[in-house]
Amino acid sequence: MRINQQNHYTSYFSGNPENVQSTCQGGAVLMGGGTDVDEAFQFLVERGGGGDILILRASGADGYNDYLMDLAHPNSVESVVFKSREASFAPEIASKIDEAEAIFLAGGDQAKYCNFWKDTPVQQALQRAVLRGVPIGGTSAGLAVLGERIFSAQQGGLDPQEVLQNPCDGRITIEDRLVDLPFMDGILTDTHFSQRERMGRLAGFLAHEGGDVRGLGVDEATAVLVTPDGKGRVVGSNSAYFVTPPGPAEVCEPGKPLTYRDLKVLKVDPGGSVDLRDWQAHQRLDVIEGQLSPSAD
Question: In this structure, what CATH number is given to the domain that contains residue 201?
Fold first, then answer.
């Protein structure tokens, strides 16, 4: 492994240093955090033609390098750990993105991703990658920044009860997309979903957005694998939840518990499929004075 230590980033490189140009097929891996899903990474590497895999992160180190080399045998894996926004202006970082055949955003802190990458050459390079058909994926914070709308956690995380009791809480910081993935239009994501009981939190986020966006919650050890036409399938150990709001919430006011009736929920278990552009959800979920009724589980 080759380590490159710079003032504003560190990179860890494994594999063949000669750049290859494989045929990419686009698509995305939407992973909910926790244990990584082997099938999801195999999908990512295959969609990238077995070429050069780039991991972007703002914490951690080289944890994906050996894992991916052993699992899927790509040409190379490079992990770039950003220490500051300044790294996003280093020309070599954009070059790494431009030369990658698949890109994965690790877990961590989505606020750092938004603050480090937005309105920089990194954001521009990520969009170029998507346009040339490079598959992109993310887990936990990495998934949080792949929707059209992003809970950016600029003031820290929020537990579901905090959001349900005050869906206008100033700590609910929601921003525009980081990367334009067409099949993610009108979608806001959440992660660690069932394990942290985040259905109420997602309902509050959708209320905060006036019912104009849909919600996607992905469980830990679970991923949605999406092809460029928006067709997805769920893999891993748990489930993914697709939530359609009816419009604005009945009660979404500062300091008042949320009341939001008739949200529709589609739960997709491993092996199931879904169309991200137009999913059909039928199970009803009501939020009444800050309480879920019934559970969507």
Answer: 3.40.50.880
